[in-house]
Design brief:
Two copies of one chain form a homodimer. By secondary structure, chain A is an alpha/beta fold. Chain A contains ten helices and twelve strands. Chain A is flat, with a radius of gyration of 20 Å. The relative contact order of chain A is 0.17.
Amino acid sequence: MEVRLASSRGFCFGVEDAVQIDEEAVHERGPGRVVALGPIIHNPQMVEKLEREGLDQTGELGAIDPADQAVLIRSHGARPETYEQARARGLAVVDATCVLVKRAQEAVQRLYEEGYHVVMIGDPNHPEVRGVIGYAPNVTVIDEGCDLEAALPYRERLGIVAQTTHSPEHVAQMIARILVRPYKEVKIINTLCLEVTRRQEAALALCDEVDVMFVLGGMKSANTRELVRLCRQKGMTTYHLETWDQFEPRMVENKSVAGLTAGASTPEWIISDFARRLETI
Amino acid sequence: MEVRLASSRGFCFGVEDAVQIDEEAVHERGPGRVVALGPIIHNPQMVEKLEREGLDQTGELGAIDPADQAVLIRSHGARPETYEQARARGLAVVDATCVLVKRAQEAVQRLYEEGYHVVMIGDPNHPEVRGVIGYAPNVTVIDEGCDLEAALPYRERLGIVAQTTHSPEHVAQMIARILVRPYKEVKIINTLCLEVTRRQEAALALCDEVDVMFVLGGMKSANTRELVRLCRQKGMTTYHLETWDQFEPRMVENKSVAGLTAGASTPEWIISDFARRLETI
């Protein structure tokens, strides 16, 4: 069948940087001597590849040996306490935090210092969000299903940031819901990743040309899930898969053109492998 | 027929204050010696009453006699240049600007001083808006039909205020449209009048109980027109009238319960007169 690729897809510079920082550190220090506090990106295949190359991604700060090992902060970033604890234990820190996540962390700190009650639009269980909200006390995290009346203070000065991988439309609609309530002042720092936004726009544009969409990426990857959500919201039959292994022929029954895109942590080899195989069907 | 009044309606404290400031000034200085630069509120019947009591509302700054007359700034406020010109001509100034309009003027000035590109959501022809945007250079005024791509600067720090009489829903939706475009930062100062918001909520609540709505107020009154727009948006048959003189029996044909509300510059005697007559139908 015919396969069309989204014009913007896959690895963003934040993920590319994180992988490169990791590979350099492992090359320099040797296998097993760089320990990440969890998977450094949300793509199991890439995580496995890095693991094979010598990165330990199951670390806990207390178990890392300062004499022999360095701690790697993954692309999603970490709370300030993590850096402090690493420093207190005398650990070398390799920081692979995405520059845009760093910018969100700084925005939260600045808004708090300016006297705003800080609000983050995002998934409270996502590591990026758990890290970013560590940069100010009492940040309120809100997402789609949230009861804003109960969650937000009344007639306040609110400082708002969003999880970097959310879509501008989603953030705009969440803020519109905030603005119909009483407030004194709202200051929004744009923390959205333009690369993610471009992938979302490209995926939506591709929906107009195809009969079915495949979105490749980790099941926990927030930006991949947002791509899936947006395509489905547009009424497109959309499958979220990690690799070709999960493909089933019924998915393309009676379809002639398939669209293909991938989240920001999906390596190009997974995408091209999938495209090549789908074309032979 | 049965007539139900909106729980919140008519004169707001800004209009009450403006009328009182005028009446005191006319009492003190004498009829013809207080000159407003246009109708002091947007209600023709009230304007006429104040005219009869001795307020001149057809004034031009250059024609007022400093030896004998004072200039009255109406509830909608005025640009800083108006105050400067009055001072330069040695005129006494009686300031009846609504405190909330003053707050909007100060917000515009502060946002500009903080380095924001100032945006005002409002009707560019309304005297409040024409006055408020005088407090910073190059304020962009946007309203419903506006092409935001053309009107707003790209990836900027935007400081936003709104015409005091707009509804929170309208402002939230305009800002949502701004937020789906690229921007660095958006700071919103809430300049909405809570009394106007309460009248809007009361009118919408009343829509659920009645067969037809009457909204009393000047044809040029922005907050009255917003009440009409909101009720119609809810699917309610709604008439915007100034007084009982414009009532026609066909308006209540086959209707048994009428709702009645009024804009913030509509005096209570117009409302109660209308209610009394409608009840006898």
